[in-house]
Write a structure and sequence with these properties.
The protein has about 475 residues and is of the alpha/beta class. The chain is built from 22 helices and eight strands. It has a five-stranded parallel sheet with strand order 5-6-7-4-8, sandwiched between helices. The structure holds adenosine-5'-diphosphate and magnesium ion.
Length: about 475
């Protein structure tokens, strides 16, 4: 029995309260995820997760099959973690393990015994289009967002290359560079540009077969084809298109059989002089878990990156969106938003929408104060860039210690305890790994950091003064 499974069986040891508390946290985090993820994604991957345990800041979630565990861990873990932390800041990590669902313990084991190990398990049965049907591609191709056109795309320094390349591909009579590889961080306009290309081609050449599909869906359809022994039909379908767009190819990294199929489809299309357009969150050479020949093949055509937004571009986008919404906004407020919301365009749009909705519903005048009020959480998230050094300084100040005490080897309780609290906060507020944190505390081992994190979490439950100190420090670090 694994350690986790043992804990699962020893559940009785937990008090009723603690159990329902983490289950409640998870229920709320799940509700949050249902808002931010597409419904199909939520139903297939998030809904089947169930809470098992909460131990030293790690929330353990169960899922019935190995395939599901790997898929969810690779693709959704950071989003899941983020949502959990928004519900409970004491959740430092989320771990997903294979376990029989508490509601239907039999179904999980009976399906897994039927599936051979070499074949990936498909989590749901026969729903979805059949690769043998003539309209298979229309069914798997995602619908295009009407707002994602070239007209609605604001061009600035960070995205001018990607925009020019996309426009060129859309307007070209013959295939010019193949593939076009667009990459950049989340929410910077990759999907928007791909849809814009598709709209343009559909308008000028309605006969051309343009397929836009997320890599996730491509992979899912391919696994289904494998499972139902329809791979030949699947291949023929995909090899008949004029323009193939695959969004977010980082999703198929590490999935060998899907990569293999993608590679062959890709080669076949390029050989027939059909256009392939691919997007990812990293450049081809940085795509980890991607086979070397596929990476190098992806880089053969034109690689165009989208850089993080600049202030000017953010302001331009806000002005365009405000015009589009027919919602006059004071320049000062737009400038304020462009200054403050630096993460990505999606958040910027979200902020503007919230302000417009709020002013319409409540009839409140749009001012900087009002924006600050309505967007409090967003603004804080954009501000929060605390470093381990900041934390050490704040903790040393709070406990009247010298900064060097944070790195020293002194074991005196009055120094060692604050140092542990600082490690705890470093884990919570920064994205540094345990070994990185250890190094910043006088070259300590990652197990020391882990111990500190666990210890402080425990003390917060049992010693009121520790909980109070940590909470004060958390509040100071949040502003
Ligand atoms: P990505 O696919 O890179 O994660 P998206 O294409 O989904 O990002 O863009 C996120 C949102 O931001 C979309 O609503 C998109 O319309 C908008 N957006 C991104 N860049 C621009 C831009 N330059 N001009 C107008 N809207 C943009
Ligand atoms: Mg996208």
């Amino acid at each position: 029995m694994t350690a986790v499974a043992k804990k699962y069986n020893d559940e009785q040891q937990l008090t009723q309260d603690a159990q329902s508390a983490f289950a409640d946290d998870w229920a709320r985090a799940q509700a949050r995820l249902s808002q931010s993820l597409p419904e199909s994604t939520f139903k297939s991957w998030i809904e089947p997760l169930f809470p098992i345990n909460m131990d030293a800041g790690t929330l353990v979630l169960g899922i019935p099959t190995r395939f599901m565990r790997d898929w969810v861990t690779t693709n959704y873990l950071s989003q899941i973690h983020q949502s959990c932390r928004e519900e409970n800041s004491k959740i430092f990590a989320v771990e997903i393990v294979v376990a029989a669902s508490p509601n239907k313990p039999e179904s999980a084991s009976s399906t897994s015994s039927k599936v051979s190990i070499s074949e990936p398990e498909v989590p749901y049965s026969s729903e979805g289009p059949d690769p043998n049907s003539p309209n298979f591609l229309e069914k798997v191709s995602a619908s295009l967002d009407a707002r994602y056109t070239f007209e609605n795309f604001v061009v600035g320094k960070p995205n001018e290359l990607a925009h020019a390349a996309a426009l060129r591909v859309a307007e070209a009579e013959n295939v010019s560079f193949n593939p076009l590889f667009l990459y950049g961080g989340v929410g910077l306009g990759k999907t928007h540009l791909m849809h814009a290309i598709a709209w343009h081609i559909k308008k000028c050449h309605p006969k051309r077969k343009v397929i836009y599909i997320s890599a996730e869906k491509f992979m899912y359809q391919f696994i289904r084809a494998l499972r139902f022994r329809d791979t030949v039909a699947f291949k023929d379908q995909f090899r008949s298109v004029d323009v193939l767009m695959i969004d977010d190819v980082q999703f198929i990294s590490g999935k060998d059989s899907t990569q293999e199929e993608f590679f062959h489809t890709f080669n076949a299309l390029v050989d027939q002089n059909r256009q392939v357009i691919v997007s990812a969150d990293k450049s081809p050479s940085d795509l980890e878990g991607m086979e070397e020949r596929l990476r190098s093949r992806l880089g053969w055509g034109l690689v165009a990156d989208i850089h993080p937004t600049t202030y000017e571009l953010r302001l331009g986008i806000l002005q365009a969106k405000a015009d589009h919404l027919n919602a006059p906004m004071p320049d000062k407020v737009l400038e304020f938003l462009a200054h403050k919301i630096v993460s990505n365009v999606r958040e910027l749009e979200g902020a503007l929408n919230r302000i417009v909705a709020h002013s319409m519903l409540v009839g409140r005048e749009v001012t900087i104060d009002m924006a600050q009020d309505v967007l409090r959480d967003l603004l804080r998230a954009n501000d929060r860039r605390v470093s381990v050094d900041d934390i050490q300084r704040k903790v040393a100040e709070h406990f009247n210690l010298r900064l060097s005490d944070m790195q020293s080897t002194k074991r005196l309780r009055t120094i060692a305890r604050p140092r542990q609290i600082a490690m705890y906060l470093a884990k919570q507020f920064t994205t540094n790994s345990l070994p990185e944190i250890g190094r910043k505390f006088g070259g300590r081992d990652h197990t020391t950091v882990m111990h500190a994190v666990k210890k402080v979490a425990e003390l917060m439950e049992t010693e009121h003064s520790v909980a109070e100190d940590v909470e004060i420090l958390q509040r100071m670090l949040q502003v």
